[in-house]
Structures are given as C-alpha cells and as structure tokens.
C-alpha cells in the first residue's frame, strides 16, 4: 500500500488537490471511500469524452470533407477546434481533480484512459496552434 499512497500523493500534488490526511489503507479499512458520490465526477468525465468525440468529428470529418462538398468553407474552423480542445482539456482535468479530491475508489481506473485522452488533446492542440503560427 505504500506504493499506492506515494502515487496517490504524487497525483494529488500534480492536480493541485490537497493531499490526503490519512493513508489509503486507513480510508479503505474505515469504509470512507464507499460513500463517495460519483455522479459529478462521472458526469464531468463523460462530458469531456463527449466533447473530445465532437472535436474529432468536426476536425476530421465535417470541417475538411463535408463543408467543402456543400461549398461552404470558413475561417472559423481552426479557432472552433482549438476552443473545443481547450474545453475538453478543462473538463478532463476538472473531473480528475474531483476524483482525487473526494478520493474516489475508481480514480486509478480512470487514470490510464485520461492520460491517453489528455495526450491526444494536447497533441491536437499543439498541432492546431502550430498551424495558426505557421
């Protein structure tokens, strides 16, 4: 459990969440984590996934393919995608912060998926910002 407590404290610091006052083993024994309301975290996490999916659909299907086919092209496409990137990034970090703040029992389960999505969003945002500068 010492390794899990160390990882837990590391991500609490990374997400700027106050560190836990009790070690993870004590909270599991006390049954504290089973009483956590997961609805806000699940809603925020699901919303960030939905916005990421919407961003991908807009960026890779609607904006480059559908709009030129119907003869409609706009200069607002890139700023719109950047805005959606920032919104998805904000919601993803917000949901992770909530998972850690309430010491949600499934927070470590969400971490790998969140890391992959975070990497994809950051790469996409970096590429879009590079296209604006170049």
**Helix segment count?**
5
Give me the Rg, rounded: 19 Å
Mean pLDDT: 79
What is the number of beta strands? 0
> How do the SSEs run, as a string of H and E?
HHHHH
Helix content class: over 70%
Q: Structural class, please?
A: mainly alpha
Range of strand content: under 5%
What does the main sheet amount to? none
What's the overall geometry? elongated
Overview of the structural elements:
Mean pLDDT is 79; it is low at 29-34. Helices cover 77% and strands 0% of the residues. The chain folds into two domains: 1-30, no CATH class; 40-133. It has five helices and no strands. It is an all-alpha fold.
Question: How do the helices and strands line up, and which of them pair or pack?
Answer:
Layout: H1 2-14, H2 24-30, H3 39-69, H4 77-101, H5 107-133
What is the structure about, briefly put?
With 134 residues, the chain is mostly helical. The protein has helices spanning 2-14, 24-30, 39-69, 77-101, 107-133.
Which tags fit this structure?
mainly alpha, 134 residues
């Amino acid at each position: 459990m010492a390794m899990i407590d160390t990882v837990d404290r590391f991500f609490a610091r990374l997400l700027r969440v106050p560190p836990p006052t009790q070690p993870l083993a004590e909270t599991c024994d006390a049954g504290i984590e089973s009483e956590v309301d997961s609805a806000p975290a699940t809603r925020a996490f699901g919303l960030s996934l939905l916005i990421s999916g919407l961003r991908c659909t807009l960026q890779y299907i609607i904006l480059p393919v559908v709009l030129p086919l119907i003869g409609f092209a706009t200069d607002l496409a890139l700023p719109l995608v950047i805005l959606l990137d920032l919104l998805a990034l904000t919601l993803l970090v917000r949901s992770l912060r909530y998972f850690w703040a309430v010491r949600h029992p499934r927070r470590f389960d969400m971490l790998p998926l969140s890391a992959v999505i975070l990497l994809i969003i950051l790469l996409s945002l970096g590429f879009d910002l590079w296209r604006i500068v170049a």
